[in-house]
TrEMBL record:
It holds the Pfam family Mur_ligase_M. The gene is murE. One of its GO terms (molecular function) is magnesium ion binding. The keyword Cell wall biogenesis/degradation applies. Catalyzes the addition of meso-diaminopimelic acid to the nucleotide precursor UDP-N-acetylmuramoyl-L-alanyl-D-glutamate (UMAG) in the biosynthesis of bacterial cell-wall peptidoglycan. UDP-N-acetyl-alpha-D-muramoyl-L-alanyl-D-glutamate binds at residues 13, 135-136, 162, 168, 170. This is UDP-N-acetylmuramoyl-L-alanyl-D-glutamate--2,6-diaminopimelate ligase.
Length: 460
């Protein structure tokens, strides 16, 4: 099979055209093997399967693992782009979007043209590429996007590699230059079943893919486990890392980070706020050093980073509103702690939890909200196919002091309620949706932006 003779490749039988290759993938709701006949009827030149489908046709070829095969095929079909780029792959529960933006900004500041693939967009400079809504796209779009960025002049692509992607081998066939681990805490247990499986999925990035450098946050217990698995063959960052965080201060104005790298001490400042930014910044700065940039150049990048929907602040008449993407117990607690420090009066939090996602994180999110906020307004996030009331009930189970809780399932009304009742000196944290510009209810995505509601209510 010569890649140049193939007209197109797909894992969706409905997309097959004359002369295309169809690869059958077993998914979680259906199985591509059920659609082999359809692919053949639509003119597939070859069909790859991993089990017998009871059809006799010489175009059908059996391989051991069709997910891996699709990654390798897409890699070949698009000309092995990752080998001609330097791909920086970042995984972990929280901080992928933020740190990949920092990497992008730092390298661009150093004159190294860098693209970005992640939750908010796939972009290189001012160009936005086709985006199908997932942090890490399927193998075909993954390798195709790398190829397009390469052709458009990118030398590096900074990407978020989700645990779903690692489990489903969406990035199979990729040669990484750098891989990085941010942290691991509870999320996605609906999909992975247990923290151990979730961890094993993340670990794959470090043990199954070619890479020059693995960067590990060793202040995280799972980071230390990865380091053990790698028998110490990694570059670490953290309070006792190879890149050592010496001091970190964060306030409403921004953050200051002091660190040591290869025997020298450096100071950086950034507009990013929050305790956890010490780690995201360290990761971005470490990547800058590994690319040979000097501290001054890195500082230029670090001060330019903008990450939509992460700790976005709005201020009016003594009230501070913060829109943030925290949607896990760990992220919510960390952002609440940061918000608490900025609060002179009372701290409000408005949040919900996504439907058809990890249910067990809901009471844990309720618990941290109850612990750190003075007033808790529970509302809807993206209910998807679940009833908003049922999700809210799950969150409520985690809160001990019910007297500080308000329930308003309409997100716009909930935000309004908190902002209108907040007094001078109060802080209102609106968590969970960050950059999202929709609310997904029963299969329909309605236009919705937390930021727009805040602007409307505060008139800013
Ligand atoms: C749980 C999950 O990851 N699901 C993804 C998965 O769907 P699935 O396993 O249900 O697939 P399926 O519907 O059973 O279909 C199996 C196969 O049959 C094929 N098929 C199906 C029907 C047909 O008529 N013909 C046909 O050939 C499909 O093309 C597919 O290849 O494969 C689909 C095709 O690639 C994806 O669209 C889908 O992502 C859905 C939309 C999704 O919501 N994924 C989320 C959970 C996700 O991936 N999130 C992570 C990030 C999370 C984070 O940021 O922390 C992400 O990377 O975005
Ligand atoms: N290093 C970190 N540690 C803990 N929490 C963090 C960290 N960085 C960011 N956060 C919190 O997590 C939220 C999500 O951050 P970010 O979007 O960078 O993570 P992500 O890993 O890309 O998430 P997702 O898996 O949903 O794409 C932020 O809004 C912030 O509240
Ligand atoms: N990538 C994450 C995003 C969650 C964002 C939150 N707003 C929600 O809808 O749960 C997920 O799919 O679980
Ligand atoms: Mg992300």
């Amino acid at each position: 099979m010569e890649p140049s003779k193939i007209k197109g490749i797909t894992q969706n039988s409905k997309e097959v055209q004359e002369g295309w290759v169809f690869v059958a993938i077993k998914g979680s709701s259906t199985d591509g093997h059920n659609f082999v006949q359809e692919a053949l009827s639509r003119g597939a030149s070859l069909v790859f399967v991993e089990r017998d489908v009871g059809i006799k046709d010489e175009r059908i070829i059996k391989v051991e693992d069709t997910r891996k095969f699709l990654g390798e095929l897409a890699n070949e079909f698009f000309g092995r782009p990752s080998e001609r780029l330097k791909v920086v792959g970042i995984t972990g529960t929280n901080g992928k979007t933020t740190s990949s933006h920092i990497v992008e900004a730092v390298l661009n500041a150093g004159g190294i043209p860098t693209g970005l693939i992640g939750t908010i967009y796939y972009r290189f400079k001012n160009k936005i590429y086709e985006y199908e809504g997932r942090t890490t796209p399927d193998p075909i779009q993954w390798h195709r996007t790398l190829k397009q960025m390469l052709e458009d002049g990118a030398e590096v692509v900074a990407c978020e590699v989700s645990s779903h992607a690692l489990d489903q081998r969406r990035v199979w066939g990729t040669k990484f230059f750098i891989t990085a681990f941010t942290n691991l805490s509870q999320d996605h247990l609906d999909y992975h079943g247990s923290m151990e499986n979730y961890f094993r999925a993340k670990l794959r990035l470090f043990v199954e893919y070619p890479q020059e450098y693995s960067l590990i946050n060793i202040d995280d217990e799972y980071g230390r486990r990865i380091l053990e698995e790698l028998k110490g063959k990694a570059i670490t960052y953290g309070r006792n890392g190879n890149l050592r965080i010496i001091d970190f201060e964060t306030s409403i104005e921004g953050s200051k980070l002091t660190l040591e790298w290869e025997g020298r001490t450096y100071k950086f400042s950034s507009n990013l706020r929050g305790e956890f930014q010490a780690y995201n910044l360290s990761l971005g700065i470490l990547v800058g050093f590994l690319f040979g940039l000097d501290a001054e150049t890195i500082q230029h990048g670090v001060e330019r980073v903008i990450v939509p929907g992460r700790f976005e602040t709005f201020f009016k008449e003594g009230k501070l509103a913060i829109v943030d993407y925290a949607h896990t117990p760990d992220a919510l607690e960390k952002v609440l702690i940061t918000a608490r420090r900025l609060t002179k009066g009372k701290l409000w939090v408005v949040f919900g939890a996504g439907g058809n996602r990890d249910k067990t994180k809901r009471p844990l999110m309720g618990k941290v909200a109850g612990k750190w906020a003075d007033f808790v307004v529970i509302t809807s996030d993206n209910p998807r196919w679940e009833e908003p009331e049922a999700i809210i009930e799950d969150i409520l189970k985690g809160i001990e002091q019910k007297q500080k809780v308000f329930v308003q399932k309409d997100r716009k009304e909930a935000i309004k309620f908190a902002l209108q009742n907040a007094k001078e000196g109060d802080v209102v944290l609106i968590a969970g949706k960050g950059h999202e510009d929709y609310q997904e209810i029963k299969g329909v995505k309605y236009p919705f932006k937390d930021q727009d509601v805040v602007k409307e209510v505060l008139n800013v």
